[in-house]
Amino acid sequence: MSINRVNLVGRAGRDPEVKNFDSGKQVCNFTLAVNRRTSNKDEPPDWFDLELWDKTADVAGRYVRKGSLIGVTGSLVFDRWKDKTTGEDRTKPVIRVDQLELLGSKQDNQPSSSSSYDSDF
């Protein structure tokens, strides 16, 4: 049996970028900053690239803003491409999100009641 599941809670590093395709599909990309569970508060966060599709992408595009506290569940995938200038093969790890939970914004003192949205994968 194989398992590829990623669960993260953090803050959006930038506003989501939503792209619509002629087919009606929608993709949304943004970054997520996740603090490590250490006693050192000066340690920088870990950064993750997120990719959301369709209904989940639409929700993220409408409700997530830079600094929003969110939870995501998804799988780790690797984007692969050939560099146009060097011709070298490139890869980038991406979390393909299939569940998004809106937990609050940076301005909130307390997290709001969470809302959960699942992808139509």
Sheet with the most strands, sense and barrel status: 5 strands, mixed, barrel
The CATH first-level class comes to: Mainly Beta
What is the string of helix and strand elements?
EEEEHEEE
**Number of H/I helices:** 1
Counted beta strands: 7
Number of domains: 1
Secondary-structure arrangement, i.e. CATH architecture: Beta Barrel
Low-confidence blocks of residues: none
In the CATH scheme, what's the topology name? OB fold (Dihydrolipoamide Acetyltransferase, E2P)
Please indicate the percent range of residues in DSSP E strands (runs of 2 or more).
over 45%
Estimate the mean pLDDT confidence. Answer: 88
Which of globular, elongated, flat, extended, rod-shaped describes the shape? globular
Give the termini separation: 21 Å
- What helical percentage do the residues reach? under 10%
- Biggest sheet strand line-up: 1-3-4-6-5
Helix/strand/pairing category? mainly beta
Structure description:
This protein has 121 residues and is mainly β. 8% of the residues lie in helices and 51% in strands. It has one domain (6-113): Nucleic acid-binding proteins (OB fold (Dihydrolipoamide Acetyltransferase, E2P), Beta Barrel), CATH 2.40.50. It is built from one helix and seven strands. The chain has a five-stranded mixed β-barrel with strand order 1-3-4-6-5. The longest helix has 10 residues, at 54-63. It is globular and about 45 Å long. The two termini are 21 Å apart. 19% of the residues are buried.
